[in-house]
Design goal:
This protein is α/β, with parallel strands linked by helices. It has twelve helices and 23 strands. A hairpin with a 5-residue loop joins β7 and β8. α8 packs across α12 and α10 runs parallel beside α11.
Length: 398
């Protein structure tokens, strides 16, 4: 297995079979479950892997230490994709001491029935392994209540923080691989899984602000070394809900009339000067990609038909997801269509008033049956209004 630095080894595994992470998020490029081993006077394992991969996992460990025992297991995060092998590791290494915080052990007993051979640590506590010293920093709600990170000199074992979707295809450290596919997958990972917890992420970043880091060893994705500054800056930006001056237009459509309205709006916004525009059919594109781009871009315009005297289902679901992520500081415009009973426009307005609380831009457009010259002009005005607001924000920030 690969040595990252100074007797710290990567012993993780790759999952290229799972189609949905947590049963929710598509994995077109797979995902890695990262674990690390420190080979010192005391041998320390940092996190485990999903239990289905235990056979590979134990082979990787034994490739580094042979028949030597493991003295400690640090559990930074209790989600089963990282803690799932704890019970089996305990069978292989019955004298192993499990390091975690108070909330770690409450969960560990609930998940795996393990309540002994534990070492409880608090924020700032240290444990000596020999030439390596572990320093524990509690980071609650990034993104579970028990989460913590572990420092070992200038190496940060960060749990899910700074992670991303995507299996590791040979190389492990960022400088060994082409990272182009990981950047948007980092945004999608953050926005869909961690995104609700911007304030706890900011608190964690402040705790680590004065620490010199040479390596960030997350539990998913590459080990960050060359791109540490970029990765930390990206997490800082996302956790502050900072955005780029672009526009997401997403729509539901049954027979194409609402889609045609979306095209008119997009063209008007483009002609008015907005360059970053992405469009999504909410029934075709998995919502995780839409949520990712809502995190990226300041402007959002949504539109859908009325369906069963209510809002088109997939749009209703998307708005619920956006509200659940507590995504802040956005601009919102909306439009809707109906055949015989109008409901879509008023339902989108209700979502914004009660849950989203975004800045409303332009006049909502309501289309009866199909576009007319009047409603087409109204769609153009909505696109122009959003463009003007986006460009004014961009101008103010310069």
């Amino acid at each position: 297995m690969q040595e990252i630095t100074n007797k710290i080894y990567y012993v993780g595994v790759n999952d290229r079979n799972k189609t949905l992470f947590e049963g929710l998020w598509p994995l077109p490029n797979g995902v890695s479950y990262n674990s690390y081993l420190i080979d010192d006077e005391k041998v320390c394992l940092i996190d485990t892997v999903e239990v289905d991969f235990f056979t590979q996992f134990i082979e990787h460990i034994q490739e580094v230490i042979g028949d030597r025992p493991i003295d400690y297991l640090v559990v930074n995060h209790m989600e089963p994709d990282h803690s799932g092998s704890i019970a089996l590791i305990k069978k292989y290494y019955p004298n192993i001491q499990i390091i975690g915080n108070k909330k770690t052990f409450q969960m560990m007993e609930g998940f795996y029935g393990i309540a002994k051979d534990t070492v409880e640590v608090k924020n700032g506590d240290t444990i000596e392994l020999g030439s390596h010293t572990l320093n524990f920093v509690l980071t609650p709600m990034v993104h579970w209540p028990e989460t913590m990170v572990t420092l070992c000199g200038s190496v940060l074992f960060s749990g899910d923080a700074f992670g991303c979707f995507g299996a590791l295809n040979g190389g492990v450290i960022d400088e060994q691989i082409n990272c182009d596919t990981f950047w948007l997958e980092m945004v999608r990972y953050y926005s869909n899984i961690v995104g609700k917890y911007g304030t706890p992420v900011q608190n964690a970043l402040k705790k680590l602000a004065d620490v010199k880091l040479d390596y960030i060893c997350a539990t998913h994705g590459p080990v960050w070394h060359q791109y540490i500054n970029k990765v930390v800056a990206e997490y800082d930006r996302m956790s502050k809900y900072e955005t780029e001056p672009g526009l997401v237009i997403c729509y539901g459509t049954m027979y194409g009339n609402t889609e045609r309205a979306a095209e008119v709006i997009a063209r008007a916004a483009s002609e008015a000067g907005v360059k970053n525009i992405v469009m999504y059919n909410v029934s075709k594109t998995h919502h995780s990609y839409i949520i990712r781009d809502v995190f990226r871009y300041k402007g959002l315009i949504v539109g859908a038909p009325t369906y069963n005297t209510a809002l088109y289902h997939e749009m209703d679901v998307l708005l619920s997801e956006l509200a659940g992520k507590d995504i802040k500081n956005h601009l919102l415009g909306w439009f809707g269509s109906y055949g015989w009973a109008s409901k879509a426009v008023s339902e989108i307005a209700r979502w914004n008033e009660e849950k989203l609380h975004y800045e409303a831009v332009g006049e909502p457009v309501e289309i009866k049956q199909s576009l007319t010259p009047e409603t087409k002009a109204a769609c153009e005005s909505l696109g122009q209004a959003m463009a003007a607001r986006l460009l004014s924000i961009c101008s103010d920030s310069e």
